[in-house]
Design goal:
Length: 494
């Protein structure tokens, strides 16, 4: 299919029935882009040049409605939108070149996002809008190099992660629909067959991933996803979107290297996403993991660093994509207060805020630009300002300090859907939502984060995998210098 789209002069995509606001937007696109480029200031607080404070200017209302159309989230659309020389979007009798939308999403992405947010005040925009906009932004990111003649096909593992918010009717299309835009290495490894059960396909892909990637990001990919029957716990369920943003996916910018030796430059900084001839890559590090899969079992080397001692189940409810009411905010603050009580006890700081607590609630990273980088600002100050804002029910996005802008969104992303816990080794962390007291906290060779496992009740030599974790004080290789690191063993995950 990919070759067909590459050779086609243009691809015509029907995105739905006629809508007068969408038609008006298609005609007004040049004017909308000009106004966006001329605008000076914060579009979240004032978008006068595009018609605000009028609540719904026609052009932007049309763009708002357009991104609600299902076409933008269909997974099979990705290859046709990325590879085609031209993509014509047809809405009723109106037609627009998809590339004319690209500057609003790429060059003026912040402005466009903020305007669309204002369209739905005082409520948060519907999730379908965010998803549609986010999916098209990814298409633009992949298509831009194609238009510039610098397109490099990415690896299949990276594409499955990037396209999680897209929709697929058949769960096997989570893999098959991406073969047209992946590189030849992965196309040659994966054969299309709808006779293969979904579970078998996913296990095969995870097996190939483990064999051809010098790290254990497969386990991070498997974290926080709803289970699939007959799928081992270590294998990602590619058909489900994980609830929290996974820590391992942003390990490069966040700097996580929990199970990675200090001499890691030959593979931890390897720019695998840019390689075309992946089969020619061989790790020169004797420390790089070499997992071997026996049936649905995955043996991994590593060591036990401690156990979960106290656990607060997931309870943070406020998210960037919901409109929290007073009950949600109160419940979130109650959850955080219980977490703080545990942290103060662990660090013996009963009358102050332990810095380890403030770090843990954001996984020591920030969404501020550049996103998911390691936190470098006043982290305790950010924590205190954020909790005060929530306590006062003051969540308006105007007049926020740089400190709170760095902390508040990061807390919401890190804590949503995760449990808070203390460890037997004297630290605190956040981890999988189904974490229990007594669960094992392990460092695996080559893993960028700690991982949570649990012995099977019917066979203590086998372990269920529950997911990644942030554990304060061991995210950057510190555990490799401990006495526990001398007790390396093999854990068989099932």
């Amino acid at each position: 299919m990919g070759q067909i789209y590459e050779r086609a002069m243009s691809t015509v995509a029907w995105v739905g029935r006629e809508d007068e606001d969408i038609s008006a937007m298609m005609l007004d696109l040049p004017n909308m882009l000009q106004k966006a480029r001329e605008f000076v200031g914060n579009p979240a607080s004032k978008v006068v040049t595009s018609g605000f404070p009028v609540s719904r200017p026609p052009g932007w209302l049309g763009l708002y409605k357009l991104f609600l159309r299902p076409w933008f989230r269909r997974l099979w659309v990705v290859q046709e939108a990325v590879l085609s020389r031209a993509v014509l979007l047809v809405c009723g009798e109106s037609v627009v070149n998809a590339d004319s939308l690209l500057p609003l999403i790429d060059e003026q992405g912040l402005y466009t996002s903020q305007v669309l947010v204002q369209m739905n005040r005082p409520l948060m925009p519907p999730k379908d809008l965010w998803k549609g906009l986010g999916c098209f932004r990814l298409v633009c990111t992949l298509r831009k190099p194609r238009l510039e003649g610098t397109f490099v096909p990415q690896g299949l593992p990276e594409l499955t992660s990037m396209t999680e918010d897209f929709l697929a009717f058949d769960p096997r299309d989570r893999v098959y629909s991406l073969l047209g835009i992946t590189n030849s290495f992965w196309r040659d490894l994966v054969s299309v067959s709808y006779q293969i059960p979904t579970e078998t396909l996913y296990i095969d892909l995870a097996t190939l991933w483990l064999a051809n990637r010098p790290h254990l990001l497969t386990l991070n990919q498997a974290s926080s996803r709803p289970p699939m029957p007959d799928l081992p716990t270590w294998c990602p369920n590619f058909n489900e979107v994980p609830v929290p943003v996974r820590l391992g996916i942003v390990y490069k910018t966040a700097g996580y290297s929990a199970g990675v030796p200090e001499r890691r430059d030959d593979w931890i900084h390897w720019q695998w996403s840019q390689l075309q001839d992946e089969e020619h890559y061989t790790s020169s590090s004797s420390l790089a993991p070499e997992p071997r899969i026996v049936s649905t079992r995955l043996p991994v080397k590593g060591f036990l660093i401690g156990y979960a001692e106290s656990v607060v189940p997931p309870g943070w409810l406020v998210s960037y994509d919901n409109n929290p009411d007073r009950k949600m905010i109160a419940a979130s603050l109650k959850w955080e207060k219980e977490c703080l009580r545990i942290s103060q006890s662990v660090y013996n700081q009963l009358n102050s805020i332990p810095i380890g607590h403030a770090r843990t609630l954001v996984a020591n990273k920030t969404l501020a630009s550049p996103p998911h980088r390691r936190y470098t600002g006043d982290i305790v100050g950010g924590y205190e300002e954020t909790i005060e804002r929530f306590s006062n029910q003051d969540l308006e996005d105007n007049d926020l300090s740089e400190t709170i802008l760095e902390y508040m969104p990061s807390l919401q992303i890190a804590c949503l859907g995760r449990a808070f816990f203390s460890t037997s080794s004297g630290s605190v962390g956040i981890g999988p939502g189904d974490l229990k007291v007594g669960d094992m906290i392990c460092i695996f060779d080559g893993g960028v984060t700690p991982f949570i496992i649990r012995p099977k009740s019917d066979d203590p030599n086998l372990y269920e995998f529950f997911g990644e974790a942030y554990v304060d004080g061991i995210m950057y290789g510190e555990a490799l210098e401990t006495e526990e690191a001398k007790n390396v063993t093999t854990f068989t995950l099932v």
